[in-house]
Amino acid sequence: MKYAPFEIEHFFRQHEFSAPYGVSSSDCEPLTLDELLTYASPERREQFEKLWLGYTESQGSPELRAAIAAMHRDIAAEHVLEVVPEEGIFLTMNALLDSGDHVVAIHPGFQSLWEIARASGCDLSFWRQQRCEDGWYFDVAELEGMIRPDTKMLIVNFPHNPSGYLPGRADFERVVELARKHDLILFSDEIYRFSEQDPGARLPSACELYEKAVVLGGLSKCFGLPGLRVGWLITRDATLAYELQELKSYTTICGSAPSEVLALIGLENWEALAARTVDIVQGNIAYCRDFFRRYNELFWVCFPQCGTITLVELTADLAIADFADAAMRQQGVTVLPANVMKFEGNYFRLGLGRRNLPSALEPFERALNEQFG
After folding, report:
1. If both were cysteines, with which of 83, 98, 190, 352 could 88 make a disulfide (CB 3.0 to 4.6 Å apart)?
2. Could you tell me the maximum CA-CA distance found in the chain, to the nearest angstrom?
3. Span between the terminal Cα atoms of the chain, in Å
4. pTM metric for this prediction
5. Would you state the pLDDT for residue 14?
6. 240-244: which pairs have CB atoms within 8 A and are 24 or more residues apart?
7. Which residues, in sequence order, are bridge partners of residue 126?
8. Rounded-to-integer distance, Cα 84 and Cα 82, Å
9. What's the chain's average pLDDT?
């Protein structure tokens, strides 16, 4: 099986650890180990310090799976499979799809959400985001017209990467009902769930609403723990769960023992970590409102209600890829153009989760002045 180059990962492999500045990070400010351990109970601290570094349970630590389940309504530990977040996408697409299956996938989105299905020989249709005066949206009526008799899987991602869009509950429940009506596997990427600035806007998890949902979650984004490489798949369908578990034997087999204990510390304090993220994002939004207001003749921006990212349009007569290249060469600042995410339009991704965003906007502003005077 041949996969197309993973363009966003190729882009960041070139720039993320070499450029001194960046304005397009998708995660929230990562915690240090010392910071995370301040949240640990004495028992967890001792567990971490005296940890036996052997193999762990393939499905994941029972305590860890129970902690993940507790964040969801009517979900038990047996419904949870610990994975590396990207691995969760790989397992789902390879275990549950066959060549010739029809798949409807949200677009734009993380490339592996649809590329693995394409490489597997599936027939893809894209449910594309649209822009309105107030920002972004996905038309559920359009989605309904895309489902065919041979459709096997619907892939969604809310809160959405890269726009930050979050549908209302009624629209999300319509999506779930479409999956149920047509007996589809609903793969729901919920990696940014729990980062809502208004907790009342939080959607139910797809696994709480539909027995054939497969939900992807993890600690990489709104909990500030990407280096642990801990994520999860949740499904209440025993047949789907078995297929996922079997394929995991060919990938990571089991998780990292230190990461599992550290993940437990994070999950036992997930509300505090999510509040930390929201605080950082809201501070950066306030700063960026003032920043982009000074350049309103050059940019269109809609700030998100949740998540750590949004899309910004460069409205000037200059390709965003050219501006990003100049910003990197002249000022050492990484700007992710939308074309790297396979999205048309003169947009770049703005990351709102890092504390150093205001300082990164200083060389970004110098690059603007060099290009536009």
Report:
1. 83
2. 61
3. 49
4. 0.96
5. 85
6. 240/96, 240/185, 240/212, 240/214, 241/79, 241/81, 243/95, 243/96, 244/81, 244/91, 244/92, 244/95, 244/96, 244/214
7. 105
8. 7
9. 96
Nearest to 340 by CA among 4, 32, 6: 6
∠ Cα 297 301 307 (to 5°): 160
Helices in 16-147 by DSSP H: which ranges? Answer: 33-37, 42-49, 62-70, 85-96, 112-119, 140-146
Question: Which phi and psi (to 5°) does residue 262 adopt?
Answer: -65, -35
CATH class of the domain comprising 33-269: alpha beta
What does the alpha-carbon distance between residue 91 and residue 247 come to, in Å, rounded to a whole number? Answer: 6
Q: Over the Cα atoms of the chain, what is R_g?
A: 21
Task: Report which DSSP code applies to 31.
Answer: P
Question: What is the rounded distance in angstroms from the CA atom of residue 307 to the CA atom of residue 344?
Answer: 22
- By CB atoms closer than 10 A (0-12, 13-18, 19+), residue 37 is middle
Structure tokens at 226: 């990407």
Round to whole Å and give the CA distance between 254 and 241.
Answer: 15
Q: What is each CA distance from 285 to 34, 79, 96, 278, in whole angstroms? A: 28, 37, 39, 10
pLDDT digits (tens, 9 = 90+) for 295-315: 999 999 999 999 999 999 999
State how beta strands 151-157 and 135-137 pair: unpaired
Separation between Cα atoms, residue 290 and residue 372, nearest integer Å: 19
Whether the pLDDT of residue 34 is over 80: the answer is yes
Token code pair at residue 278: 């929201």
From residue 359, alpha-carbon distances to 22, 248, 355, 369 in Å are: 9, 42, 9, 16
Q: What is the pLDDT of residue 10?
A: 86
Q: Determine the number of helices (DSSP H) and then strands (DSSP E) in the chain.
A: 14, 15
Cβ count within 10 A of residue 149: 6
Residue 244 CB neighbours (<10 A): 22
Spatial contact of 192 and 308, defined as CB atoms under 8 Å apart: yes
Q: Give, as one character, the DSSP assignment of residue 25.
A: -
- For residues 183 and 147, the answer to whether their CB atoms sit within 8 Å is no
- Assign 290 to helix, strand or coil: helix
* Architecture in CATH for domain 7-32+271-372: Alpha-Beta Complex (3.90)
